[in-house]
Amino acid sequence: MSLFRISSHVSFGISKFVINKPALKQVFPTSFVGITRLYASKPKTLKERLSELVPEKQEEIKKIKKEHGAKSLGNVTVDMAYGGMRGIKGLIWEGSVLDPDEGIEFHDYTINECRELLPKADDGEEPLPEGLFWLLVTGEIPSKEQVQALSAEFAARSAIPSFVEDLIDRCPNTLHPMSQFSLAVTALQHDSNFAKAYQTGVNKNEYWLYLYEDAMDLISKLPNVAGRIYRNVYKDGKVPPIEPDRDYSYNLAKILGYSDNKDFVELLRLYLTIHSDHEGGNVSAHTTRLVGSALSDPFLAFSAALNGLAGPLHGLANQEVVRWIFHMKDVIGESPSDETVKEYVWNTLKSGKVVPGYGHAVLRKTDPRYTAQRDFALKHLPNDPLFKLVSQLYNIVPGVLHEHGRTKNPWPNVDAHSGVLLQYYGLVEQNYYTVLFGVSRSLGVLSQLIWDRA
């Protein structure tokens, strides 16, 4: 088996060599992780490593454009144009590729490989999302020391201005959490490094340096912003402080009021990792890039993305899954027979509605993000009645949809599971779920925005 393979799905059909990780594991079964981290023998900060990679990538892109610039990536059909450009290869997205059979891959690492290889907290088994952000930015697996340094940097940058706190506090509890989230992120633009540098006429070759600082600031402040919204709308309005020596997910859990539950902290680490990036064609990712292409700073671009994420066909999908399951439970009971569940699913389809959480525009198998959450549930909450109902649907719905014949992919996607896990740990406020999605999605879209300016 060769240690290298040709990746034809990277950069939309432009092939390049990448490490064949399964082969490498066979040759070096006990030291694979060490090999992926050789470059980190002398730990560098993320910004230092990125400063090395930017000129290399710039030269690579020049070469690709010179050698392949005139090549066609395929035909564009009328159906594609009417279908919202679905299927058109039109933009390069650096961080992830959505493979119809393998699911999402982050720089050629699958979900399972990320769960295995990315550094973990001393008391945890799930990957730290800080490590996933490093991977998305650099294409490399970081060392544990580098991830710990990134956690500390996020904590150090986490404070939000008092006027933004006042802005959030003045929002009525009836204003949707996603509207408050977008409003607060827009207000953070007041301190944008990129916007100020652009106004002073900074050289465009240095754009990425200032945008990087904004991206780091924004990601760092999101737990305080998201947590303050949650505390105001659903709790007592009191926001506990960020702990400077703890990881990103722990601090988010603390602000939400769930850090005493170790398993919930682990769930957040998994959730923030697997929801972070999903190629560039989805609404939130495309919106971030589109608004950013006008040289709008990351705060303005990400605020726009959050408005797209708030839509029922994007970030609200997991909320709709939970509501559908609860309605089903109310109608047919908590422990229905398989036949009763099957009949309910058929009734949903016959009424002209879809079964939320099933089907995907690209995937043609069960979403690996769903599988990762199912693995977590089997380990931590195997006897939960709601999880048992989700498992029942997992065994029944694909067959019904296949028989129905109008669904290209009858398998569950990520949204079919995430809400049920949050329900189990007591975070039952469904209108808030998309805010957590937004915190996670910042890691993917902002890493791409850095590279767009570089």
From TrEMBL:
Keyword field: Transferase
PROSITE patterns, A to Z: CITRATE_SYNTHASE (PS00480)
Pfam family, one: Citrate_synt
Domain of life from the UniProt record: Eukaryota
Family statement drawn from the similarity comment of this UniProt entry: Belongs to the citrate synthase family.
Protein name (database record): Citrate synthase
Species name: Gigaspora margarita
